[in-house]
Design brief:
CATH superfamily of the largest domain in chain A: Thiamin diphosphate (ThDP)-binding fold, Pyr/PP domains
Oligomer: heterodimer
Strand order of the largest sheet of chain A: 3-2-4-5-7-6-12
Shape of chain B: globular
Largest sheet of chain B: 5 strands, parallel
Number of domains of chain A: 2
Helix content of chain B: 40-55%
Structural class of chain A: alpha/beta
Distance between the termini of chain B: 50 Å
Distance between the termini of chain A: 46 Å
Number of strands of chain B: 7
Order of helices and strands of chain A: EHEHEHEHEHEHEHEEEHEEHEHEHH
CATH class of chain B: Alpha Beta
CATH architecture of the largest domain in chain A: 3-Layer(aba) Sandwich
Shape of chain A: globular
Number of strands of chain A: 14
CATH superfamily of chain B: Thiamin diphosphate (ThDP)-binding fold, Pyr/PP domains
Strand order of the largest sheet of chain B: 1-2-3-7-6
Strand content of chain B: 5-15%
CATH topology of chain B: Rossmann fold
Number of helices of chain B: 12
Chain lengths: ~325, ~350
Amino acid sequence: MSITYLEAIREAQAKLLRDDERVFIYGQDVGGTFGGAFKATKGLAKEFPGRVLNTPISEDAMVGTAIGAAIQGMRPIVEMQFADFSSIALNQILNNAGTHYWRTNVPVPITVRLPSGGTKGSGPFHSQSMESIYAHYPGLIVVTPATVEDAYTMLIEAVAIDDPVIYCEHKYLYYHLKAEKLPDDGLPMGKARIAREGRDLTIVSYSAMLHETLAVAEQLTGEGFEIEVVDLRSVKPIDTNTVLASVARTGRLLCVGESFPWGSVTAEVIARVAAEGFHLLDAAPQRLNAKDTPIPYHPNLWSAHRPNAQKIAAKARALLRE
Amino acid sequence: MLQTAQRSAKSKTKKPAPPHERFLEAFRWMLLSRTLEEKLVSLYRGGLITGGVYIGKGQEAVSAACGLFLQKGDIFAPLIRDQAGRSAFGEPLLDVTRTYLGSRLGPMRGRDGNIHRGRPRDNQLAMVSHLGAMISVTVGTLMAKRFKGEKNFVGLTCIGEGGMQSGAFHEGMNIAAVEQVPLVVVATNNHYAYSTPNDREFACHDLVDRAIGYGFESYSLDGTDLSACLDVIGGAVRRARAGRPPQLVVAEMLRLSGHGEHDDASYVTDEIKRQPFARDCLKVAEQRIVDLNLMDAETLAEWRRDAVAQVDEAIATAQKEAPPEGDKEDWCAISTRDLVDSLE
């Protein structure tokens, strides 16, 4: 038996609804017999009557409602149909949820699920990776699970945490990624994972880019290089210590992210390593992101827009030659 | 003395107070609010308050009625001009003076100022400046109460005609009706969104007409008439509590101040100041007390002295308290300490 990344998200929500009566799911098309645009809540409305609720197309009000419910002791999970549409809810997420604990001493335990990242043919408004925007603002925890196991345990952990969590799940991984079974527990949130050990170059990545990076590491073995791959898992907080320890072993750093480049997670990682581990570096740290244009529709353009194994390999080879 | 009056008001909610008693109770909250805000204005002008001062002058009748009909367990999400309602709901004067004067003992501890204060644990939500945002938040609090099996609760939130033009207001109203929560939205058309008059704010005939489009029941109200405010807002709260659809009240009055005390409101035309809705609700209420002989002059004077004494005490207390200090602050925006990002 195998379970996909998407099924892990569904199973985590089923477990949360089963184990914690404070949990409810709120989002467009999540309820009824439909179970969400990607089926992440398939069957849950029937299994948990009254707790998996369809909403109007009102991202602002969906999150506002979740904030109010959380203040009164509930543990809402909001599903954005696509991460891109969470821009409509930015005010509630950033200015209300993100400031509430600081201002009033009352935390807001909401989890906002963002189906993120690009897939073929999805175009400018159904492909975005918004983790850097949310990480920029105080008061939010931002996670980017890259494995089936993390998709499961980090969602359960996100709901248990008293603070707002932005849970960025990657749509490309929904069906592609499979595991044999679901774990009982995982690495705690906030800890990065060494996804592959190496000695010549550290590549820091997260979400779907982890898998492109691992493919590159495998490929470069044939060229005599051992690449260490760090999966950030959470982008806020960033586990700077694990990254620095890896760079101490390899002396070289490449950061790969699918988001737009300006002010991205990769920029933040490089800034931290440059500031705190400059002496560890044998070459200037590098990064690779999507291009600084809207995300294109046509597969030919899309594959040229985002980082992929070929581009990562070229960047890695150049860095290894320095 | 007033705090005692407030407690007795709460206990009387099971048995409605006689009309005159309720009127006088509301008037007293209006008086306290006006006294407090006039004092805050003078402190601001004397340079003793940092940031803005935003007052509810002219809107006290509506606001007091909002706070007065809420009971223990109800939710109140006040807005910028709701001092009277906040006090009637149970906010201690010290919360106000500590917040405005920057005491670290206030509910916001110097982290947020003026009218953003709140006590969410005590069901008084802390507004954000982004108008319309608190409507859906209030809806969520009521859904939570329903999930938890609580009974006999309502939520009341306030908005102005300015905030009614935001997208968040539209989304919040609609979702309130979809969820069929016991919500009362009290809107005040005070005729200016900061400096922008009604004709540049909306083009519909009457804002109250919007209610039917959302699935709300609705009422228009002369916000300068305290009796009408008590009747209409009290009725809306009662109907929401009884399970009727969400309720919208649109009250009309003139904002008798600037947007904030930094604003001289020179854009308010003389013509609009002559309109019936430009009356001062506090003076109208006082005249009614005199006309109907609801209270003798000495008692009224005593109430005024009491309000001044309470305000002076709250200010004096807050002024003696230490301000927050940057190097002693806990610079942490999340409650889960082991997930704080360690960037210095």
